[in-house]
Design goal:
- α1 packs antiparallel against α4.
- A three-stranded antiparallel β-sheet has the order 1-2-3.
- 50% of the residues lie in helices and 33% in strands.
- It has four helices and three strands, in the order βββαααα.
- It is an alpha+beta fold.
Amino acid sequence: MAFVSFSKSNNTTYVYLKAYHQDDYLENTYHYVYSFGRIEKAKKEMEKMIQHFDILFPEELEEEGFTHDDLKEWHKRVKYKLLEQATKRAVN
């Protein structure tokens, strides 16, 4: 199972894809699978990937078994995060 993660550095939000895995000691942990970059760029790139999935979807993600539906879900989460940030700026 993979999920979108956000990391903030110097007032810039970065988007990462992380996946859970179970190690030898039966502990659930996660590891980084892919970096989408800055949130604004990530949103645009994801939109392009959704439109041209067969051509633009990263091979390493396809090899991990991720699908078009996964990408749409990640994109929805990024859009929500951008909306959340815009709302916070408008309130402040």
